[in-house]
Amino acid sequence: MGRIVCVHGIGKQTSGEQSLLRDWTPALLDGLTRAEQPDVAGSGDVVMAFYGHLFRLVGERLAVSDPLYTAADVERGFEEELLLTWWEEAARVDPTVAPPGADTLVRVPGGVQAGLRQLAKSAFFGGVALRSLVFDLKQVSRYLRDPEVRMAAQTAVTDQIGPETRVVVAHSLGSVVAYEALAATPGHPVRALVTLGSPLGIANLIFDRLEPAPEGGVGVWPGSDRLSWTNVADRGDVVALEKDLRPRFGPGVNPVVVHNGAHAHDVTAYLTDQLTGAAIAGGLNGE
User: Fold this and answer.
1) CA nearest to 202, candidates 169, 255, 240, 145
2) Nearest to 173 by CA among 156, 205, 197, 194
3) Which CATH class is domain 4-55+146-285?
4) What's the rounded mean pLDDT across residues 192-217?
5) pLDDT interval class at 73 (50, 70, 90)
6) Is the pLDDT of residue 76 over 70?
7) What is the pLDDT of residue 106?
8) How far apart, in whole angstroms, are the C-alpha atoms of residue 279 and residue 190?
9) First to last CA, the chain
10) What is the DSSP code string of the chain?
């Protein structure tokens, strides 16, 4: 347990708490320094809620510890729709990515392969192997569709929250896990939720599948009225499709847009930003 609980994002199944903290902690402390708040926290205040092991296969001896997925493994329905959503957003922000057209939509023969090929050559997903892209699709799908995995991931978060916890910082899919964990834990002590590169605002695929379910088209507030929520997104972040979460969760969310350069979704770029540091410092200071 710690004053700052971090929740990692997608594709960390071969990592662990300590290996992730080696990247997260110095970047987070750098962000506090940029915000001129270097003394409000130290490395001992930062802990990692790790759930990646839930997606790691047992007993496999593959080069990257992932299944050798191909385009044929992308399931119809949710996985196809999420692929199409990523593809459309990548085409919007990256002129090198051809947008999906009538002859390349993922719902037609060969469309999945075309979508994966376009994403793999984009600046955002550049260098990511096809099988890793498919594995990421399946990781999001499994979290939302497998109740046991969903509960275990949320428990990994709540197990790290103690009376001293003031801030939860969550990245990518981890923002969904953290949001649901906090929303299901009335009376928690968290003062500030800081979400980075979050897909929480994606209608139908993510937002409408949240638990607890949105009420009247508005997501449940994940804490007391005193909780501050800052959502940080890079304009080129394909995963953070909806940069402003206020239409989904109400005016209490503070939307922040940052510029992470070529690594739009990279968590360390998010953490080192002055505005991220200010949001974390505000929670630690009780603002």
Assistant:
1) 240
2) 197
3) alpha beta
4) 95
5) confident
6) yes
7) 58
8) 13
9) 22
10) --SEEEE--TT-TT--HHHHHHHHHHHHHHHHHHTT-TTS--GGGEEEE--GGGGSPSS---TTSS----GGGSPTTHHHHHHHHHHHHHHHH-TTSPPP-TTT-TTSTTHHHHHHHHHHHSTTTTT--HHHHHHHHHHHHHHHH-HHHHHHHHHHHHTT--TT--EEEEETHHHHHHHHHHHTSTT----EEEEES--TT-TTTTGGG-SSPPBTTBPPPSS-TT-EEEEEEETT-SS---S--HHHH-TTEEEEEE--TT-TT-HHHHHHSHHHHHHHHHHHHT-
Would strands 167-171 and 253-258 be described as parallel, antiparallel, or unpaired?
A: unpaired
Residue 65 has pLDDT above 60, yes or no: no
Tell me what the mean pLDDT of segment 197-212 comes to: 95
Q: Which residue has the higher pLDDT, 248 or 71?
A: 248
Measure the CA–CA gap between 47 and 155, rounded to whole angstroms: 15
Alpha-carbon span 278 to 16, nearest angstrom: 27
Q: Are 200 and 245 in contact (CB under 8 A)?
A: yes
Sequence ranges of the domains in the chain: 4-55+146-285, 71-145
Instruction: Find the mean pLDDT for residues 89-99.
Output: 87
How confident is the model over 132-158, as pLDDT tens digits? 778 888 899 999 999 999 999 999 999
The packing angle between helices 147-158 and 130-145, to 10°, is 90
Q: Which residues pair with 257 in a beta bridge?
A: 233
Between 73 and 195, the more confident residue is 195
- Which residues are CB-contacts of 239 (< 8 A; sequence separation ≥ 6)? 10, 86, 172, 197, 198, 199, 265
Amino acid at position 58, single letter:
V
Residue 19: its pLDDT value, please?
A: 96
CA distance 22 to 138: 27
